[in-house]
Every structure is written in C-alpha cells, then in structure tokens.
Amino acid sequence: MGRNSASPDHLSSGDGNAKSNSGGLGFNSIRDRFRFKRNPNVAKSASACDRQYRATRSHHLARSVPRKLLVFPSRGRSLFYLLILFALFAFALASVVLQSSITSVFRQGSERSVREGFKFGTLRFVPWRMRRRFELQGRMDHLRRQPRLGVRPPRLGLILGNMKKDPLSLVLSTVVKNLQELGYMLKIYAIEDGEARSIWEKIGVQVSILSSERYGHIDWSLFEGIMVDSVEAKDAILSLMQEPFCSVPLIWIIQEDTLANRLPIYLVNGWDHLISHWRDAFSRADVVVFPDFSLPMLYSVLDTGNFFVIPGSPVDVWSAESYSKTHSRPLLRKDTGIGKDDMVVAIVGTSFFLNELSWDYAVAMHVLGPLLVKYARGENDVATHLGLLRDSVRHYGLNEDVNGLLLITDIILYVSSQDDQGFPPLLTRAMSFGIPVIAPDYPIIERYVVDGVHGIIFPKHKPEALMTAFSLLISEGKLSNFAHSVSTSGRLLAKNMLAAECITGYARLLENVLAFPSDVLLPGQISRLNQGQWEWNLFQKEIELKSVDILKDVHLRDSGVVYDLEEDNTSPVLVMDNPQNKTESLTKDIPTEQDWDILKEIESTEEFERLEIEEIEERMEKNYGIWDELYRNARKAEKVKFETNERDEGELERTGQPLCIYEIYNGAGAWPFLHHGSLYRGLSLSKRGRRLKSDDVDAVDRLPLLNDTYYRDILCEVGGMFSIANRVDNIHRRPWIGFQSWRAEGKKVSLSAKAEQVLEEVVQEKTKGDVIYFWARLDIDGGLTGSNDVLTFWSMCDIFNGGNCSFSSLGFASNVLKAGPLIARITIRSIFGDAFRQMYALPSHVEALPPMPEDGGHWSALHSWVMSTPSFLEFMMFTRMFADTLDALHMNSTNTTDCLLGLSKDEKKHCYCRVLELLVNVWAYHSARKMVYIDPHSGSVVEHHPVEQRKGYMWTKYFNTTLLKSMDEDLAEAADDGDYPYERWLWPLTGEVYWQGVYEREREERYRLKMDKKRKTKEKLLERLRNGYKQKTISG
C-alpha cells in the first residue's frame, strides 16, 4: 500500500470478473503516485542497475508481478476464527523457514553482502558521520554557560520552492512557528508566489519573491543559516556555492522523490555529468534532511556523508481526512460486493524490499509456495483449500486505491519480518480512518502506541497471542465496544503522532549546525516547546475543500528543475527514457549509403569552388598600401585583443578625478554587489575571485602576505587596504581615497546616486583636509532588527568581539545577561586596551583604553569611508602597528589556535576583523579629524562628535603624526637589521619597510653606481689616450 490516494479508477480483484464488475466503483489507482514506483520506461536490461536504489516500503511497489493485499470478508464467526488460525500458522512457519532459506531469494551477486552486512531485521539507515559530528559539536550547554552580550535574535533564511497549501507546507509552517517561540527570526524567499503566502504572513514571517535574476543579489551572510525546502530551489543554492557564502550553514530538506526516480536512468544512460552536478549541489549542504528513512536509500548515489532523517509528516492523516470527506464507507463496501455484516480483515506488512522482493513477499513464497503449487488453480481454489467460502479471499494489487481499501476494512493486522526504523505510514493512515490495528511489539510501534488504548500489540515471538488480540476486537461477529474505543483513541493519536518529534528534531538540528556569533542571543531551551501538534487550523479549509485528487502529486510537487536540467545537458535522442523508442530513434538517424554519397558530392563541389575563387584572387592586382599604414593597423589590432586586465570605461573616466573608492570583495559571489563607473574600483582579496574584463586591483599581487589564507582571513578588508598603501604611488595618485565593503550593498547602506554626487562635490571643494566622511553606521544590521542607539561604542565593540574588547562591558554585561553573581566569576579581557598598552609600552598603572564619548553620535562601520590620501597613509601606519600588536598578543597567549575576540568558529577564523573594522573611529576621534556622516539615501551631510567638544577627551599625544612616524622607523630599523621580536612577525609583511637608514643606504648605492660609471668612463678615455685613436678612412 502507499501513502497517497489516487485519481478515480477501478478497484480490481484477482480474477477478471471481479475486475470487470468493479469498474465503476470510483476507486483511485495509486500506481502513478507511489514514491518508490520505478519509471516504466526503463528497459529490463537496465533493471539490475536500478535495483540497488530501490529500498522502499512494501506498499510502494509497481511491478509486472504486483504484491498482493489479502482482504478476508468472512461470513460467520467460525470462518473468521479459521482465518485467525491460518494467520497464526503462516506467521509461525515464516519465522522458522526464513532464517535458513532467505538468501535464496536474492541474486548470487549480492549473496555475500546480504550474509555479511544484513542480518534479519536490521536494515537501517544510520547517519554515523552526522551523529559523530553532532556529538563533537554538541556545545549548546557550554555556550549557555559562557558570557554573551547578544542584542539580536538568530536569523534564518527559508527558501521555498513553491507556496502551495499541502502537507509539506503544513510541516514547515508548524516548525517555523515553534522556532519563532524559541527566539529565531525568519525571512522567506519563495521561488514563486502562491496561495500559502497568506499563511506565512499570518504567522508573522516576512515573505519575498525570489526571481531568478535576484539569486545573486541576496546577502546570505546576514543569516546564521539557510533552510531550503525542495529540489526546486536548487538554482538558489548555486549562489551559496561561491565565496563569500560558502561558509553559511545550509540545511536542505528533500521531500520529493522525482530526482531519486531519475538517478537510475542517469546511470543506465551514462549521464555521469548530471550525477556529478547533483552530487556537487548536495555536498554544499551541511545537512540534507529527509522526512523518512526510505528516501536516503533512494538518493544514496548522491550521499556525501551529510544525509540525516527527521521523521514526521502529516501526509497520511491529510490524505485520510480528505478522502473521508469525499467518499462513503457503505457505498464503497456495496460496490465491492461486501455485505453490511461482513467482517473485513486486511493483512499488511514489511517496510523495505531488496532486489524486487520484500521480506514479506519472501515469507509468503516460502510458507505458501508449496501449497499454492500443489493445490492452487485460482483464487477461489485457495479459499476452498483453506476451508473458507468461495470469494472470501481477494487479492488486491498495488495499483488499487489504498484509501478505499482501508476505508472498507474493519481490522488491520500488521505483520512485518523486520523491525522498521520509522513508524509504518500505513498504520498511521489506517488509524486516521478510525480502524483498529493489531501489530507486533516492535520498539518503534511501542514508542507511540499504548497497548489496549490506541491498538493491540502482541509479542512477535508468540503467534498464539494473535487469538487473544482478535478476541478482544470481535464480539458476536462484529466489532466490540472495545474495538470502537481503540479506533477512536488511535485516530486522535495519529493526527499529531510525530509532530513533537519533528519539531524538536529541527530545533536540535539547528543548535548543532548553526554558529551563533557573539552579538546573537542564543535560542531558548527546547524544553520550552509545549506544542506537540501540527498547525491544522491554518489548513483545515484546504482539507475540507480539496478532494483526494489534489493529493496526486503530494510527494512529487513541482520538480521541473530536474527535467529542465536534463534537457539542457543531454541530447534530444538520449533524453528519451524508453529504450525501445530510443533504439527506433537512433535507427532513423543512422545515415545510409546514399546519404554518404550525397555528402561526398557536396563536399567535392564546395572544394572545387573554393580553389577556383583562390586562383582568381591570385591573378588580380592588389594595393596593400604603404608600410606606415600597415604597421599602424597591425598595432591597432594588437590593442583591441582581449586582455585579462584590459582597461574598462571606468578607469578612463577616473582620469583627472580627485576621488576613487575601492570596493573590497572576496569571491565571485560578491560580484553582483559591486558598483561600476568612474567613482568605484574593485579590490579583490583573491586571485580566483577577481572579476574578468575589469581593472580591479589584485591585492594578492600587491601584498604577498595575502597569499597566506590564514592572514587573509584574520585581516579581512584591512588586508586589502594594506595592499593599496604598499607603494601607493604606483596605484593611486589622487588627493582623496575611499573604501567600501561589498557588504554595504547587501545591507542597503551603500551610497545612492544622490549621495555620490554630494560626496564628489564636497571633495572637489576641499582638495585637502583632515576630515573623514562615512555613510555606514555601526548600529545598522540589514534592517532585520531595531536600532541599537542606546549602546555605547565600547559596548558594541564588546558585543562583536565576544565580550573581550574592553573592560567597560562589565556593567553592560550584568544588564544584558541578568546573571547576577555569575559576572563576578567571569574573566573578561580588554584586548583593545592590552594591545594599545603593548603598542606604546605603557606601564600597568596607566589607563590604556582610549575614551570614546557617549553623545549619541554615529560611528563608522563596514570600512565605508573617504579621507585624504595623506590621512589614509597615516591611518595605515597606525593600523599596521596595532594589528601587529594584536597578533603578538595572540602568539604569546597560552593557546595560539584559539581567538579571544570571537565565540563562533567563523568569528575565530576572522579573529581581528571586527576590532580592525572599528579602529578607524578611535584613530579619527583622537587624531582630531572631523567626522562627517553622509546619509547614504538622502545625501545629507552632518558632522558628528565635533572637534570643539572633544577637547579634554582626546589622546592626541598617542596619535601624533611625528610619534607614529618615529615608531614606524624604529620597527623598520629592527626589521632591516633582522632583529625580529618573534618568529612570525607580522609588521614587516604588511607594507613597506622604510627608515632613514634605508634611505641613506639607497643614496650610498646610487652614489656608488654613479662613481663606478665615472671611473669606467675615465678609464676608457685614458685607454684611448695611451694607445691612441685614429679614425679609419673611407677606403679602409
């Protein structure tokens, strides 16, 4: 049986008469809607390659020899008990025979794997890699014990393949609503709009339609993690496969089986490139989540060790309730010839099958095989030999209506030869119809079903217990009151049976996969979730209005992306699935002998005409022009050839302009966020991620330090600034210079056209000056949270750096964490103060943390500012020494692999980035630079922290230009002499090493070369005078 209902069709019995008589019953075929139905167009020769991917449920079967469902309508109590005795006999015999003869069912090629790797009842999907990873990263308790100055909730992005109202949307809406209760903030990006949009907006989720043109224009780094709900959203995932988004955690939920059904066809046709394409996409996901344990086995060819199962889906309950509202039980029984007082018992079982034969089918073969071979002449003969009335045993193939069969059944007997890993979905659907069930005492069943309350559970090794189970449900040939009570309780249980497990499963998965930065509040305890049911109230109208036909493709959804990819990457001939049609098509396309003769004749004619034209051209006189014109044309042709670093229009327009803003980026994923034109120029931190056909600056070429990925990661955008400052005259000869991170565009704080015009006018009026213009505020975070104006500068620094930026965060931490005595036991270091103290060699009793005002003004962020070029070089001088001191503190710490300026793995990887991002504010404030804020949208200009109000607060003595130059020369002298304070000294690698001694040595070198030249010239003249020099005559 299957999970889905079907379109209207007939309910066929085993014989032809029964089939013809039931043609108008209104039952629905399920053959075309089973998750495990194999493509009917695959040739028999290819079936062997198919079978290794066909692990599935017993009711998910569509073969030339279909699996049968036994339904027994018995007339009278004696016949019913006789049936029970037969079931007991078959079940007991199966357990004995199966142990010794099961391997004969399988092919010889797989016999060894079955014997060695498959024990009876132990077929299971075990994501051991994911479990091991979660055990290593199960650090939520540790994180909750650490001090955290979070100010915003964790953000999740949810990408939806479509927005239909179906059971899959019910699962996601339930999970999302519970995640909101834990403190997560979600934003939905839908590939296409749909009827479910109102539901998402009702539960308070912001919805944005993500067209194909916008895939690359979303800054995914704004989110702590991304969840994708279907294969249909694969194109959106491609944007997450490029830097700088490769490190964003991705959870891909796969609920369709369309791609799984196509994978065997790819193997048969040799479309390895398609398999590799999908495997690359699957490998990008940190976790690929499936709703049941059968799908991972179907997708096993794409498994890269990241498959995981979170069981739970309301699809069976949805299907049963929808079917019950559109079909009548008495009418269905009447149409099938079952009387009102007849007792119908359905025997179902098994969860998977191997090599086209399930365990239950193997049991039936071994138990009933000899009896059927010896006596059976048809279905009625089977009933006669079993001692039952004719027509009391009916066989229903898998192409029948599952919901219709269940609705006419009185009792479901579940007998499985193995312990299922997940709760049998057929039992869930039967319980949803209100049918009492009898099942063995497998752990998965006992976990949810209470014996005697929701169903009857019997010991699997005691078949005689079945007699007792049936006697409890039958009274005088009818269902007892106890049976009705059990069916009612079972129906209530089935409605929300796996909801709580599904919700908590996703909550725990997020805790193990996501990395929570320092400024993020941790999600609430999972134990706070009291809701253990699906959000039926949001979809109840859909269940009442939609018939079962709407559920036809509930597991298929729209997976057009699978077929579109096939069409784009395969030839029209090979894309055909049916090998017979493929052979016919290939036969028609094979050229005949006549075709080859015609082709040869055409080629010879074309060759004759070509030779004739060449001979005529050779006889004609040509004027090639003068040599100067030929040379000029050749040079012009060389210039128009493609060059990797060819100048674009922007570089030509920048000629003569006073300002250039360098946009720093790392990876092709940031290209859509970059600007074009005369004002901007790209600055790439990696060679491979550099834009083609552009004049972007390659920071790695200008600063070899960035070849080391470790330093490139810990310095981030500042590394690009170091590369520009290194021999700046070779790259930048303008009076003003600016920088902007690619993230400014992603956070909607980049300069608008109006703001750009205002900035250009301001810098043209002031050719020089100690002023810094900035437009990205420190408290702007992409618009997903409120304003943080109440926070001070050093509080924000602590928030972004794991609470270890300054000592001033102690009071703030007590207010945020509400931890009370816990604060007294927390050791919070002032990394900024320690670095400042070591940089200037300050004694321990002197305050080393520069004061920053709390006047409510704005501070710069995202490296988005403009200043004069001399000021920039001075700032770089200060930044190089500060970064070197930070690195020295890190090297001298007890654990050099750990970073005190971050809590998450990504923050530790980019250890110095957040402190260096804020460093420009400290330098500009205490060096008496005017700080002017330009509104990025309106272009309004406002000065913040006026210089007049800073008097008495600025530490100008530490930021004096003369002092900084003196310190820089001291470091350069030490580096020039090879006097390194430690082995990995960062400062000499971040820019020029220049001091007075270098200048004198270069001057001496130039003087020495000059004197050598004079000496050689003088020696040459003396040689001529000594030996004489006579000019030769013309005749020689």
TrEMBL record:
<dbReference type="InterPro" id="IPR001296">
    <property type="entry name" value="Glyco_trans_1"/>
</dbReference>
<keyword id="KW-0808">Transferase</keyword>
<feature type="region of interest" description="Disordered">
    <location>
        <begin position="1"/>
        <end position="24"/>
    </location>
</feature>
<feature type="transmembrane region" description="Helical">
    <location>
        <begin position="78"/>
        <end position="98"/>
    </location>
</feature>
<dbReference type="GO" id="GO:0016757">
    <property type="term" value="F:glycosyltransferase activity"/>
</dbReference>
<keyword id="KW-0812">Transmembrane</keyword>
<keyword id="KW-0328">Glycosyltransferase</keyword>
<protein>
    <recommendedName>
        <fullName>Glycosyl transferase family 1 domain-containing protein</fullName>
    </recommendedName>
</protein>
<keyword id="KW-0472">Membrane</keyword>
<dbReference type="Pfam" id="PF00534">
    <property type="entry name" value="Glycos_transf_1"/>
</dbReference>
<feature type="domain" description="Glycosyl transferase family 1">
    <location>
        <begin position="389"/>
        <end position="480"/>
    </location>
</feature>
<keyword id="KW-1133">Transmembrane helix</keyword>
